[in-house]
Structure formats: structure tokens, C-alpha cells
Amino acid sequence: MSGTFMGMPAFPEAAREAVDNPTLRGNLRHATHTIRAKRAKAVAEVSDWAELREAGKRIKDHTLRHLDHYLVQLEEAVTAAGGIVHWAADADEANAIVTRLVQETGESEVVKVKSMATQEIGLNEALEAAGIRAYETDLAELIVQLGKDRPSHILVPAIHRNRGEIRDIFEKEMGEWGRPAPEGLTDTPAELAEAARLHLREKFLRAKVGVSGANFMVAETGTLVVVESEGNGRMCLTLPETLISVVGIEKIVPTWRDLEVFLQTLPRSSTAERMNPYTSMWTGTTDSRAADGPRVFHLVLLDNGRTDTLADEVGRQALRCIRCSACLNVCPVYERAGGHAYGSVYPGPIGAILSPQLRGTASEIDASLPYASSLCGACYEVCPVAIDIPEVLVHLRERVVQGGPAVREGNKVVLRPAKGHAAERAAMRAARWAFSHPGALRAGQRLASRTRRAHPRHLPGPGKAWTGSRDLPPLPAEPFRDWWQRTHGGKDGVQ
């Protein structure tokens, strides 16, 4: 998988730098608290939210169990509607396909709908290497692109920027990419939006090739769906003559009727709206007499680690994700660390379980992501498809400790034998022995209580990192069993 921010350190180191940035923390705190409050109000309006959530979970789980069937059905439907389907096993193959398709049109620039999948594979960089310039048209993505920055949020990629910073970026960079910012630009939202509109309009009107992702693909009809709030996506989907969509294979829903559930839960969970201002759907191609829509449509179905993730019975639930970003907005770790610390285009709690599965846990950053959580469970409570993120985090921590990714052996998925983490394994073996020998455990507890005043507040050696930001909990004056026996009676402290 591509999409790793090259040179990024492990999460604890990157997060430490972010926590020391008061401007970043202020921007994140204001934005996430505002979004989460609006979302809670929008969800409270729906009396059957729990039922919708369960329905979304079941639809996704059913689709994932029968993904092979629905992928074939989707390909047949898209082809019947005039589209062309391509299969990409990984990022390199997907980038090569898209690059070739653009080159075949003879064009040297494309306009893009906001797409996590194309960010995941590093498509913009691949196109640039081939002499093709990709223009982001989503406002937040435009800010990130002009600022030579990286996205830090799934829904609002420029959430780490404030209005003053955005104005400075527009004034400095817009002229290098096309129409410059108006003279005397202020940081009022209306003026910033107008500057972006004027800058992008000329690109929409001359673009011959559009590139998109999709929020959903309907297997029975071959229909693709993009939901957005600005209308820039619809411009990219309807004006260019050629449309190339890069979509993860997990984005399928079986039937048109299934959209009913997600078109209620996604907008409320993401933008706190009752429905998205723009919901664009297209099936195949249009003929030359049509006023809008692509004359040529290519669908690139992207695997890039998804099949491996599907093989893990616990971890596969991450593939239910509909990219609403609700989990980011309630996560206390994300609020303080920001999205860049996750070293991936998928930040926050969902990124902490999705990136290590798509990319593996061999790198330092990916091995650290399952630990980027306090396991408070707030992410699970707001997830519209009920992904138990804490459960998957603990599962992935086990994988990291075991030393490798999950591998299939017959009908089971097992973990590779451990190669490292000797100190942690030794500690776990010692704990297992102690808990299986009650007499030794009780003696150790009594000894620890009697010597508690001499205990350090921080651990040495391998434990130093854990106590670097927290004190060890104080030991009680006597073990619980001794207290119970003294106050309630009973042999060995047990009634």
C-alpha cells in the first residue's frame, strides 16, 4: 500500500510534537467540538437511529461475506451500461492504469473529486511523474494542495488550518496553479470561498478528464454514488468527457434499496446534515446528445490490502467503514495529536485499525498505530456501522506483539510466531505463572504492600516509556484478600 507519509516517525514521537503546538491544538479542539455537537443534535432527531445503525452493519457484513459474488455482478452491470472495468491488485497497478488511461486521451491535466482511495495510492504523485497535473477541487483538498501540505482529517482534510492561514496560502500559491487570489483578500469565509470558486471555475470549464472515487457502488445496477457538500464534485462528474473512478472493492452495496440506510446515516454522522446537499449518481456513460455526463467511463476496482484484511475475522469489520469521520471528532487522542501523527491518509481511530491492516505492521509507524488509543470506546458509540474499534485495536496489538501479520492456514487465520518483544513476553509468562499459583501471588501482594513506600514512581528499562507521562498507581496498605478476610471473614479471603 502506498500512502505512508515518508519519513514519518512512530505515533508517540509524532504526537508529542503535535501536542506541543498550541495553534494546532486550538484549531482541532474548536473544529472537532463544533462538529461533534452538531452531529449529536442531528442524530437525536432520528427515532430509529439504533435500528439504522444495525441495518448498516448487517448490510456491510453480508456484502463482505459475499464480496466475490457482488464484485462480479457489479462488473457485469457497469459493462452493460457502457463502462469499462479494470482490476488493480495494489497501488502501483492502479496508478499505472489511471496514468495510461489519461495519456490515451492526450490530455495533460485532470480535475479531481475528493477521494481517499486516490490519496491512499498516491495517484497525484504518480500522475505528476508522468507529466500530468491533477487539480484538487474540494475546498479543503485545494487548501492542502496549494499549501504543499498533507490531509489531517477524513472529512475536513484542512481541519488543522485556521482562516488566517488559509488566506495566506491562497494569496501566496493560487497564482502558481492558475487564477490568482483577488486583491485585498480577507479571511472571511465568504471571501475565501469566492476566491476558490473563481480559481476552480476555469479548470472545470476546460477539463476533459475527471478522476473520482465513490462513496458507494450498487452491484445490481452498476451505479456509483458520490455525496458532497459543495458541488465541486458534481462539476467533475458531469463536465469532463472522460471519467475515471478509483474505488476500493469494499464500497459495494448489493441493491439500490440498501442506499436508503446509508443516505440517512452518512450525512448525519459526517456533516451533521439531514441529507447531503449534493448526491451524484451515474450509471455507465451518456451519448453525445446528452447535456452532461461522461462519454467514456472507467472504473478501477482497488484491492491494495483489502483481501488480506477480509481474511481476518476480527479485523475485517474495519472494511464496513463509510468514511464519515465521526470517530475522529470524538477521539481524545486525535483531538490532541492531530491527523498527521498517524502517518497515513486515514487518521484517527479508524486509521489506527485500517492502515496497519492494509499496509501490514512491519514499519515503525504502523506497528505503533494500534497503541494510539486510550480504548475509551467513544469511537464505537458514534460509528454508524457499529465498528468495534477498541476490539480491533486490542486484536492488532496482539498481532504486533506476536511479531507479524495474520496468515491463513486452512480455514483459520493465525498469527505468525513472534521474533521480538522478549521483555514483554517474559513479563506475560511471569504473570501467567503468578496467577496460576495463588500462594505465591498472595505472598507477592503482601510483600509489595509492605514495601510500597520504597517503590519508584517511574519504571526503569523497557517500562520507562509507559511511565514517561504517568505515575505508577499507588499500592494499597494491604491486599484485597487480606482486607476481605479481616473485615468479612472467610478462608483465604473468600466467602
Automatic annotation (TrEMBL):
Residue ranges occupied by any LUD domain in the UniProt entry: 73-301
Keywords: 4Fe-4S, Electron transport, Iron, Iron-sulfur, Metal-binding, Repeat, Transport
InterPro entries: 4Fe4S_Fe-S-bd (IPR017896), 4Fe4S_Fe_S_CS (IPR017900), FTHF_cligase-like_sf (IPR024185), Helical_ferredxn (IPR009051), LUD_dom (IPR003741), LutB/LldF (IPR004452), LutB_C (IPR024569), NagB/RpiA_transferase-like (IPR037171)
All residue ranges annotated as the Lactate utilization protein B C-terminal domain in the record: 396-486
Biased composition, class Basic and acidic residues, residue ranges: 479-495
Molecular function as annotated in GO: 4 iron, 4 sulfur cluster binding; metal ion binding
Domain named 4Fe-4S ferredoxin-type: residues: 318-387
Gene Ontology annotations of biological process type: lactate metabolic process
Gene3D superfamilies to which the protein is assigned, alphabetical: Alpha-helical ferredoxin, NagB/RpiA/CoA transferase-like
Domain of life (superkingdom): Bacteria
Ranges for region Disordered: 444-495
Family matches, as SUPFAM superfamilies: 4Fe-4S ferredoxins, NagB/RpiA/CoA transferase-like
Segments of skewed composition (Basic residues): 449-458
Pfam hit, one: LutB_C
The protein's name: Iron-sulfur cluster-binding protein
